[in-house]
Amino acid sequence: MSQVQFNHVQTAHCESGVISNLFRHYGLTISEPMAFGIGAGIFFGHLPFVKVNGVPGTTYRIWPGAIFQRVCSRLGVKMQSQKFSSPEKAMQELDRVIGEGIPVGVLSSVYYLPYFPPAYRFHFNAHNLVIYGKNGDNYQVSDPIMDVVTEIDPKSLAEARFAKGFPEPKGKMYYPVQVPSGVSLQKPIRQGIEQACHYMLKIPVPMFGVKGIRFLAKRVKHYPEKLGDRKATLYLGNIIRMQEEIGTGGAGFRFMYAAFLQEAADLLQQPELAKLSRELTGIGDLWRNFAFNAGRVCKSRSADNVSYGELSEMLLQCAAAEEVFFKKLSKVKV
């Protein structure tokens, strides 16, 4: 089996991190924030009818796989992507491809990754990592949220690739088969910004975008009387967890998009994007403040805890700020 030199760079989020690391391997250098922005990764959704581990799902980024799909389409990268009916077929194909010296992106469940600390191993089935070779029987792993490369045994990797639950990874693996040597980023940046603004402002369904933040705010306000204290704490805890622990977290995604706007401002010589980058950083701080206070409510840490009503007001403040921000962004000529 050929040994591959793979340049591992730690990133904030798995999907945009794998994009950046894989593309760099093929000579197309693109930062993680740029990948996130071109892929219109920033989003919000609250899905009370889609239960994740028994509680409603909340997302602060676009659905898994969408960033990758959009970036590849906008930059002209062609990918080979496969899913499998059995772990045996999936592992055989992985061995074949990395045996040819090709690093492979893999979808996995965090729960079965033994190099994660136990506290971080939960049932999240949309984690992306790169397998770039083997050391004996073990697979060499570039996991973008880890500071160094690591290894994983075949049994754990097969379990991670075929974890049950929503969504099922089904052994998904992917790798570039055609990567352009150079690209102009102006059009992809414009397309990414236009799509992000549309998704945050114009989806008519009340559970998505800015409307979705307000939708969640109304529900949070009534959690205690509708759910009871224990369930209210469980639901609120999951909102924080999805914001601050899953990948980059809600506030983290706002900071990453702000970094994208700053990079785009420098690249395109568009100072208005730099101003909006600073504005979004302030919105990220609003989200962090909400998470901090919601965490105190969950833990009942102090006598002067904020109420669920006050948490609802904080979310409405986030919604108002994001609405103003995305309306301004939609008017910038890129």
UniProtKB/TrEMBL annotation:
Q: What is this protein called?
A: Butirosin biosynthesis protein H, N-terminal
Where does the Butirosin biosynthesis protein H N-terminal domain start and stop, copy by copy?
13-144
Q: Which domain of life is it from?
A: Bacteria
User: What are the DUF4872 domain coordinates in residue numbering?
Assistant: 155-329
What taxonomic ancestry is recorded?
Bacteria, Pseudomonadati, Bacteroidota, Chitinophagia, Chitinophagales
